[in-house]
Amino acid sequence: MNQSFAKTIETDLFQTKNGKPVTVHFIQHASLYFTFDGITIYVDPVNYEGVDYKKLPKANVILITHDHYDHLDKNAVADISTPNTKIFCNGTVQKELGTGVALENGDDISYKNSLYNAVNVDINIEAVPAYNTTEGREMYHPKGRDNGYIITLGGSRIYIPGDCEDMPEMAQFKNIDVAFLPINQPYTMTVAQAVHAAKVIKPAILYPIHYGDTDLGGLSVLKGEGVEVRVFKM
């Protein structure tokens, strides 16, 4: 007999350059959210067993990378949305949701998220490429369709790649402080590709996501590169 249970959402914390903390709440697979200075930013919210989005904080911002079932869930989006929630996504997701702001690779937007008591939080969001590079895998995530995102909060740059491999465009992503890299071949990166990507973008902190039962032992070499690997349980 299946019994319902409440999933424990793991959290971690890092300091931004302005000294204010960001708390990472890891839900499962590629779904997570950040809390920072009174705002809540979700990435690819998807319903999983034991997770009740109705009981989670409402979203100030929702970022959706693409329309695959493990990244787009209309019910989860509805549960955390308010009339003031800003949703950023690609064009395909915008059509499926019937709402949101469609961003293309290369778009860059900055705005102040206004909170109660006239508190304003500066947010910058860059939409960057997210695609497969290995021959024979291009159909999973073709170039130009999906989005990754670089979020700037408190002066720190946080890279959310979506589903991709170690793309050449990563060499252009400067001053990345924290990165979340997807590791589950053949759909996203191999461990070796994640190591290469980390050496290119040089984050201070790397969180593997999307990795399922992949052995992450090979990431240990990054300690010598000055990259701290922090692993959430899948």
Q: What's the arrangement of secondary structure elements?
A:
Layout lengths: L9 E6 L5 E8 L2 E6 L2 E5 L17 E3 L10 H7 L5 E4 L1 H7 L3 E2 L5 E7 L5 E11 L15 E8 L2 E5 L17 E5 L8 H11 L3 E5 L18 E2 L5
Parallel strand pairs: 4-5, 5-6, 6-7, 11-12, 12-13, 13-14
Antiparallel strand pairs: 1-2, 2-3, 3-4, 8-9, 9-10, 10-11
Number of β-strand runs: 14
- Mean pLDDT equals 94
Low-confidence stretches: none
Characterize the overall form.
globular
> How much is the radius of gyration in Å?
17 Å
Percent helix, as a range, is: 10-25%
Strand order of the largest sheet: 1-2-3-4-5-6-7
What percent of residues are in strands?
A: 25-35%
Describe the structure in your own words.
This protein is 11% helix and 33% strand. The protein has 3 helices and 14 strands. The chain has helices at residues 74-80, 91-97, 191-201; strands at 10-15, 21-28, 31-36, 39-43, 61-63, 86-89, 101-102, 108-114, 120-130, 146-153, 156-160, 178-182, 205-209, 228-229. The chain has a 7-stranded mixed beta sheet. A 7-stranded mixed beta sheet has the order 8-9-10-11-12-13-14, covered by helices on one side. A hairpin with a 2-residue loop joins strand 2 (21-28) and strand 3 (31-36).
